[in-house]
Design goal:
single chain, alpha/beta, Elongation Factor Tu (Ef-tu), domain 3, Rossmann fold, 2 domains, 6-stranded antiparallel sheet, 5-stranded parallel sheet, 10 helices, 11 strands, binds flavin-adenine dinucleotide
């Protein structure tokens, strides 16, 4: 097996736009995260996505959109990925090891950026599955807490173990001594976490839409219902999830914005295709 040190000694990169894998963590049979070197010239806004991939057997790159899960101040790039058994990219990508190379097209884009929202008091991150990835970036960006008094991460998966990557990330942030120093002891109260499952029993259950329309999430967190004056939101999940959440937010009076036209919420697909 190649180590990072071996990779560093390789004389030349063999792929166009190649970056070297520095770490891989498998969270479940269907989820893993990995880190790669960051091109010196790559600038991005936390929440954006890039195209990454591997060379196919025919020598052509297999590229897919991936949200950057690391914040823009990080020296490396982190990604959080599904493993689709027959997926052209992820059936192979799930086997990468430190020292391997991936292709990374250095052109970040996306709508889940702080500049696409009007100023407000509270920012809601609403995600299912790997839709957590852009928020893993934004939660680790101090700019998010400079702009908003409170950030609420709602994440829904089928089973409890599918929540682990996000849960550990939030716990690490809450216990980060630097953030404590920056924002004071009440930082833990400024980042609220509301993880739910839909198919397995866990302390909190149910769909994000149901927990919002019933008012349960507001009650549980001690917050007032969403209000277009104070609340902003970012949505990232399957197409069906995005459509349903959008309707709920519009019911609270929030309007969809864009980079060129900031409003109260923005939406991005976590993947193309149906999915749940
Ligand atoms: P594909 O042929 O691309 O997909 C096969 C099928 O698997 C799809 O039809 C869909 O039903 C299902 N599927 C694909 N991706 C997912 C997923 N993430 N969760 C659940 N079901 C899925 N994927 C990530 O894992 N992490 C990310 O951060 C990420 N960011 C994305 C950002 C954008 C803007 C878009 C459009 C997609 C993103 N995706 C992300 C999905 C990613 O582009 C690929 O679809 C995924 O890596 C699977 O690639 P594949 O070639 O193996 O299978």
């Amino acid at each position: 097996d190649l180590t990072v040190a071996d990779a560093a000694e390789k004389p030349a990169k063999t792929l166009p736009d190649a970056q070297t894998v520095t770490a891989v963590t498998h969270w479940t049979d269907t989820l893993f995260s990995f880190r790669v070197t960051r091109p010196a010239s790559l600038r991005f806004r936390s929440g954006e996505f890039v195209m990454i991939g591997l060379l196919g057997d025919n020598g052509k790159p297999i590229l897919r959109a991936y949200s950057i899960a690391s914040p823009n101040w990080d020296d490396e790039l982190e990604f959080y990925s599904i493993k689709v058994p027959d997926g052209p990219l992820t059936s192979r990508l799930q086997h990468i090891q430190p020292g391997d190379q991936i292709i990374l097209r250095p052109k970040p884009v996306g709508t889940l950026v702080l500049d696409a929202l009007l100023p407000g008091k509270r920012l809601w991150f609403l995600a299912t599955g790997t839709g957590l990835a852009p928020f893993a970036s934004l939660m680790r960006d101090p700019e998010t807490f400079e702009r908003y008094e409170q950030v609420i991460m709602m994440h829904t998966c089928r089973t409890a173990d599918e929540l682990t990557y996000g849960r550990e990330l939030v716990e690490n942030l809450k216990n980060d001594p630097l953030l404590g120093e920056l924002y004071g002891e009440d930082f833990a109260k400024r980042l609220l976490y509301y993880p739910t499952t839909t198919r397995e029993d866990s302390p909190l259950m149910g769909r994000i839409t149901d927990n919002m329309t019933s008012g349960k999430v507001f009650q549980d967190l001690g917050l007032p219902p969403m209000d277009a004056e104070t609340d902003r939101a970012m949505i990232c999940g399957s197409l069906a999830f995005n459509v349903d959440v959008k309707a709920v937010l519009e019911g609270f009076g929030l309007r969809e914005g864009a980079n060129s036209d900031p409003k109260e919420f923005v939406v991005e697909k976590a993947f193309v295709g149906e999915g749940v």
